[in-house]
Structures are given as C-alpha cells and as structure tokens.
Amino acid sequence: MTTDRRLTWLLGSSALSNLGDGIGKVAFPLLGASLTRDPLLIAGLSATAFLPWLLFALISGALVDRVDRRKAMLLANTSRAIIVGALAVLVLLDATSIWLLYAMALLIGTVETIADSAAQALIPAVVDKAGLESANSKLQSAEIVGQTFLGGPLGGVTFAVFAALPFLLNSAGFAIAAILLLAIRGNYRPKTTGPAPKLRVQLAEGVSWVRKRPLMVQLVAFAAALALTSELAQALLVLYALEDLGLTSAAFGVFALVGGAGGLIGAAVAPRLTKLLSRRTVLTAAVAGCAVAFGVMGVVYEPVAGALLFGVFAASVVTVNVIIGALRHALIPEHLFGRVLGVWRTAVWGAIPLGALLGGILAAWLSTRAVFLISGALQLGLAGTLWVVLARHENSIETLGEEPALSGPSPSSSPGSGESAPAPGESAPAGA
C-alpha cells in the first residue's frame, strides 16, 4: 500500500474517532448542564476529562513506544466504543448523575491517552519529513471536521431529540474508526536493537531528551501556558452559550459548528502562511488572535457575534497546533516519539484540568464573561513572550527542526533504546 493510501486510512479513522469525540464533547456538558448549573461542577467535568493526561500521559507514551501503534489505536477505539455504549444504556434507563458523568469522562480520557498518542506517533511512519506540515494540517482538518464541524452540531441536535442518541452515535463512531484501521497493513512497532528496557528506563529517556533541548523545553512551557489560559474560558463555553447568549441546546451545536468552520480555515491556511511569513510571525499572530477573540467574547451579547469570535479563536488555535505539531514531528526521533509526546502532554494537557478548575472558581466568584476577559488578557501576554523567546531559536524554527543537535538520535546508550525505525513503506486543545 502506498504512503498516501495509508495516510488516507489513518485520516479516515481519525476523522471518525474525532466525530465520536465531537459528539461527546457537546453531549457531555449538555447532559451535565441538565443535571446541574453549578459552574464549578461543570468546569470540573471538563477537568476530569483531561485529568488522565496529567496522570497517565508519560506511561501511555512509553507503552506506545513498546507496541504496534496501529494495534494500540484499534484496541483503544474499541474500548471507547464499549464505554460510551454503556453510558448510552444508562442514559436510556435514566440512571445518570453528575458523578457518573465524572467517572465516565475519566475512563474515556484514560483510553484516549493511548489512542491519541499512537495516532500522533504513526504520522512519521506514513509520510516523509517534507510532508509533515501538510500531514499535520490534514490531521487537524480531520479532527476539526469530526469534532466540531460535524460532531458539535450532531451532539447538540441529537441531544435535543433524546438524551441517549448522541452517545449511541458516539459509540458507533469509535467502532467504525477501529474497523478502518484494519485496512492499514504492516508492522508499526518501533524497531529495537535488543530486549525492551524497563518501563522506568524508557520514561527517563523521554524526560532526559526533552530536558537537554532548550527549544523543546520552551515549546512545552509555552504550550502548557496556552492550554491553561485558554481552558479558563473554554471549560465554561456551554454556560456562556446557554446563559450569557441565551442559546438552546440545539443552537449550541450550531455555535460549535461556527468554531469548526474557523478551525478548518486555520488548518487550510497554516501551511500557506508559513511559506509567506516566518513561523515565528505566524505563531505569535495566531496566539494574539486567540487572545483578541476570547477577550471580545467577554463583552459581546449578540449570539452571532459570539459565534463568529469563537470561529476566530478556533482558526487561531488550529494554526498554532498545525505548526507546533509539524515542529514536534521534525524534532523528535521516531523511536522516542511516544515517550517525548508523553512528556509533552503530561505538561500541556495536564495543564487543562487546572485551567478548567480555575475558570470555574473565577466564574463562581466573578462571572463567566469576566473569565473570558481574563483568559484573553493572559493569552495576549503569552503572544508577546513567545515573540521574544522564539527569536533565540529562529533558525531551528524556520528550518523545521533540521538542526543536527535536535533531530539526531537520542544520546541515550541504554540497552534496547532502539534506532529510528525505517518507515514501513512510510489536535484540541491549544498546544496539543
């Protein structure tokens, strides 16, 4: 099978699993809002969904570097189909509570750490380095189409029909995503030169690789800060739409659709922008776009204006993710990718629960609108900081990680650390 076809199957599976994610990410908060309007509990639901990244991302990344990554994705999607299917049955039986939603969100999030890490690690196996930015753009597009452009409206409309329907569709999306992975042939287990090292040794290698590279450390710190500051407001999006803008559950799905359209625009223009302007300029401008969008959302009262601003935020944050994703794939050796991604997502996605809880506390103390203003102001500060920091690494950023010290093999010499496997024939949250 050619590289393009393997990438097509991977993107198709990703789009369907993200369709399930998108339906769930609208249906979960809507179900939660039908049980309570406490902003802290609603924000806590979002925090719980991302908590597994803080707890298990390192371990999941190490596991992904020990097993066939395609099979890991297949098993994870099958597991998610079963978990969400069980939730649909409980909703049908009217046997839900806010605490049950917390438990289900934790389970689904835990399995997601495997699925997403494996999907990211598969990309360098199906495209060469020159195609990384394009492949990341396509993966972001598949995520946006699945999660927001289709999943968001479907989640809102089907929840309005009857509460269990979006969860049934969610389960079906994960199941079909697993089936599509069967079309990808080949062995996608990282090649090693000896017996697999102990898990703690592999974890240490990932941490050590990041720690010795100042650019990677600074990218992780920036992405974590962006994830935290944007999640302050994002965790409260359902309350902002339902209470501040006065939308219905079905209209909330349309609100998410506008965000999806913005995200698609961001995914489409990001590779083109980096050919016209420096990556430093595009990244900084995109973060500033996130800041302005959320800041202005805090003062508008018109639903259409609020939705359009959310679309601007989505376009900006996807532009950030496309560029950072391509840099990450270019900088990280293939055999270490799962572990380094585990370090990345422990910091970045681990910041999301903290941002969600802080957003809930601030909303209870001040208001939802005030949280959007605070989030925008903090992200504007991040944009300025990023411009200064990237000036020190402009050559590495603009050459997409071609600096030998960054793209070379891991300095680790521990047994079984492995060589970069030959290619067998060769997304979010902010900063994903």
From TrEMBL:
Q: How does it sit in the membrane?
A: Multi-pass membrane protein
**Region listing for Disordered, in residue ranges:** 400-432
Q: What is its main location?
A: membrane
Transmembrane feature ranges? 41-60, 81-102, 159-184, 219-242, 248-270, 282-301, 307-327, 347-366, 372-390
| Any one Pfam family match given in the protein's UniProt record, by short name | MFS_3
State the InterPro entries in the record. MFS_dom (IPR020846), MFS_trans_sf (IPR036259), TM_effector (IPR010290)
Q: Where in the cell is it found?
A: Cell membrane
List the Gene3D superfamilies hit by this protein, alphabetically. Answer: MFS general substrate transporter like domains
- Output the superkingdom of the source species: Bacteria
Fetch the PROSITE patterns from UniProt: MFS
Entry keyword Transmembrane: yes
Regions of biased composition (Low complexity) lie at 402-432
Q: Which UniProt keywords apply?
A: Cell membrane, Membrane, Transmembrane, Transmembrane helix, Transport
* Positions of the Major facilitator superfamily (MFS) profile domain: 1-394
Determine if Secreted is one of this entry's keywords: no
Which protein are we looking at? Na+/melibiose symporter
- Name the source organism: Actinokineospora diospyrosa
